[in-house]
């Protein structure tokens, strides 16, 4: 075997040393980058609402001074409510507070979007579009009341291992600052454009491993699980035991099944209220386990539309 010359050996060791130094330097840089980074604190959002979960509002952008003046005059002249059909038991001032803080902020619209600001009690406005919006808003309030009292209120009864966060459905939970909202993303990631939750046939999702299932059923399960992953920004183990997916030991799975049944209920009973759109998990969750735009607690909305209709004092959210 030919020996390396002195010059070749010198060149080899120089290259070896250079490569070693480069690798060591890169390694130290990676370690420093991963463990030595200083977290830059984000500036708090001055418009973050104290009543909603992770929802920012700046009503100076959409509430008109003329509307606020008209509302102030209405509160002064009509202290007891007129033609209030859902938010009963409140004063005019309390209803107005709810409308500004939660309805107007939830849709980011002016009072005149649904009202004749010269007579807030009027239903038969000359502008039929405004009259239709007021009727639709009333139907949405009734839907929120129904979902809070007959679905969210039941979460605490599903399991002793988990208690609900206590958040309440509000306008902003679905609208999130849009007067007209879509229940599904225009281009769902990794899902067919025509995919929808199998509402009306939820049994297709009950796979126990005891019998063979069709490839269509497998595919629908995968689509549904992926939709839920994306909607709440979670992995499979948020709801499932990774060693045996059909088990129900994780309380989040019971919550998920209950919410799927609620979506089925919405489709069956409120299709016209949501413009014949199909409900989805992202309609409320939109990438978060606790939906942004939900009221933080029972105290932040009128008791009559909350999970606890026998609630106590009116909170500052309504004042």
Topology:
Layout: H1 6-35, H2 65-77, H3 92-107, H4 128-150, H5 171-175, H6 215-232, H7 251-269
* Model regions low in confidence, pLDDT < 50 over at least 5 residues: 312-319
What is the element string, with H for helices and E for strands?
Answer: HHHHHHH
**CATH topology group of the largest domain:** Photosynthetic Reaction Center, subunit C, domain 2
Number of domains: 2
Assign the CATH class of the largest domain. Answer: Mainly Alpha
Largest sheet: none
CATH 2nd-level architecture of the largest domain: Orthogonal Bundle
The helix tally amounts to 7
- Share of β-strand residues: under 5%
Global geometry: extended
Supply the helix-strand structural class: mainly alpha
The Cα radius of gyration reads 28 Å
Fraction of helical residues: 25-40%
Rounded mean pLDDT score: 87
Account of the 3D structure:
The chain is mostly helical. It has helices at about 5-35, 65-75, 90-105, 130-150, 170-175, 215-230, 250-270. Helices cover about 40% and strands about 0% of the residues.
Brief write-up:
The protein has 319 residues and is an all-alpha fold. Helices cover 39% and strands 0% of the residues.
What features would you highlight for this structure?
single chain, 319 residues, mainly alpha, Photosynthetic Reaction Center, subunit C, domain 2, 2 domains, 7 helices, 39% helix, 0% strand, extended, disordered C terminus
């Amino acid at each position: 075997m030919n020996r390396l010359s002195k010059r070749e050996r010198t060149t080899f060791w120089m290259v070896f040393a250079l490569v070693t130094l480069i690798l060591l330097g890169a390694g130290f840089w990676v370690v420093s980058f991963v463990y030595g980074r200083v977290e830059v604190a984000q500036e708090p959002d001055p418009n973050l609402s104290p009543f909603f979960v992770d929802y920012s509002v700046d009503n100076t952008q959409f509430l008109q001074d003329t509307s606020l003046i008209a509302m102030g005059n209405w509160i002064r002249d009509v202290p007891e409510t007129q033609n209030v059909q859902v938010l009963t038991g409140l004063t005019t001032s309390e209803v107005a507070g709810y409308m500004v803080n939660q309805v107007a902020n939830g849709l980011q619209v002016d009072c005149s979007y649904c009202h004749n600001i010269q007579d807030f009690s009027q239903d038969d406005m000359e502008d039929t579009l405004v009259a239709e919006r007021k009727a639709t808003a009333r139907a949405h309030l009734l839907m929120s009341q129904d979902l809070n009292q007959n679905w969210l209120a039941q979460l605490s009864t599903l399991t002793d291992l988990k208690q609900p966060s206590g958040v309440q459905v509000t306008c902003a939970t679905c609208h999130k600052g849009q007067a007209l909202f879509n229940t599904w993303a225009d281009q769902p990631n990794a899902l067919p454009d025509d995919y929808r939750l199998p509402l009306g046939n939820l049994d297709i999702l009950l796979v126990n491993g005891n019998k063979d299932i069709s490839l269509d059923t497998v595919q629908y399960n995968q689509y549904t699980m992926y939709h839920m992953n994306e909607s709440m920004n979670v992995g499979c183990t948020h709801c499932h035991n990774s060693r045996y997916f059909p088990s129900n030991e994780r309380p989040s799975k019971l919550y998920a099944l209950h919410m799927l049944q609620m979506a089925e209920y919405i489709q069956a009973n409120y299709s016209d209220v949501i413009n014949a759109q199909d409900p989805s998990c992202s309609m409320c969750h939109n990438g978060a386990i606790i939906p942004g735009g939900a009221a933080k607690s029972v105290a932040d909305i009128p008791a009559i539309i909350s999970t606890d209709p026998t609630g106590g004092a009116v909170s500052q959210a309504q004042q």
